[in-house]
Specification:
Elements lengths: L13 E11 L3 E10 L6 E8 L9 H5 L22 H9 L2 H24 L7 E5 L3 E5 L2 E2 L2 E2 L10 H20 L2 E2 L8 E4 L2 E4 L6 E2 L6 H18 L6 H9 L4
Antiparallel strand pairs: 1-2, 2-3, 3-5, 4-5, 6-7, 8-11, 9-10
Helix pairs in contact: 2-3, 5-6
Length: 253
């Protein structure tokens, strides 16, 4: 049975109010948006993720679009395997990494993130619900946090020993679910995990790769496991990366 769409999701007859920047990185900015019905009811916070334009036509255009600086967008070649654009013009542009090719790559990453999140959400993985994606508005996601602020990253969260154990157990289950769905996060760390409402959440998956379809799938999975095991070990938990990796491989049919 398909997992139902959350009842707070509004897909039509709504109004968005931009509440400002949540996070500004090298390639993208994430803004907080308040979405509500036209009559003001059904208020809910969303996170809006957009990659910055690489070139601007005139001074002040970035500011008009809601960005603070242009994108550089580097180091994605290893994650694009198996994601070639269907259009031959776009493929050639990406191969040459022309201005148009860079824009195609940027848009493909957001589309990829939406698709991966939806796939993971469908199998019950602890990820924010992907509300919508389009080239103009970018990616709208479930906002994790409250009016006082966003959920902390695991790296900044102050967890008690029992909470740390619960976070580890939840992370192992999340990795099992990701492998079951056929995905490798490919950049898993304490900075791409959130702790909110006594739950661990997996975020930032635009670089996720097909575990079996990618030639780097198993190598990236092992790297993910080593990264997170190292963080938990440094915080006092006895965890074995090779044991966890073997257990994940055992889930592959």
């Amino acid at each position: 049975m398909a997992r139902p769409v959350p009842d707070w999701v509004l897909t039509e007859w709504f109004t968005d109010v931009d509440l400002g920047v949540l996070k500004s990185g090298k390639e993208a900015e994430i803004r907080v948006v308040e979405r509500s019905r036209r009559d003001g009811s059904g208020r809910h916070l969303l996170a809006q993720k957009r990659y910055r334009p690489r070139r601007v036509a005139y001074k002040g255009q970035l500011e008009e679009l809601g960005f603070t600086r242009a994108a550089t967008f580097r180091n994605d070649i290893g994650y694009r395997e198996g994601r070639a654009p269907a259009n031959s013009r776009d493929r050639r542009a990406v191969e040459k990494m022309s201005r148009h090719g860079k824009q195609v790559v940027a848009e493909s990453w957001l589309g990829q993130e939406h698709d991966v999140l939806r796939s993971l959400w469908e199998v019950g993985a602890p990820v924010p619900f992907p509300v919508s994606f389009d080239d103009h508005g970018g990616l709208f996601l479930e906002y994790l946090g409250d009016d006082q602020g966003a959920a902390p990253r695991l790296a900044q969260a102050r967890l008690s020993p029992p909470e740390l154990r619960r976070a580890w157990d939840q992370l192992v289950e999340a990795m099992f679910l990701m492998v079951d769905a056929g995905w490798v996060h490919a950049d898993l760390s304490a900075y791409n995990l959130l702790w909110w409402a006594d739950r661990l959440w997996v975020i930032d998956v635009p670089q996720a790769v097909d575990l079996v379809g990618s030639t780097q799938g198993f190598e990236l999975l092992h790297r993910d496991v080593v990264n997170v095991c190292g963080w938990f070990a440094r915080h006092g938990l006895e965890v074995d990366a090779e044991v966890v990796f073997a257990e994940l491989l055992g889930r592959i049919g």
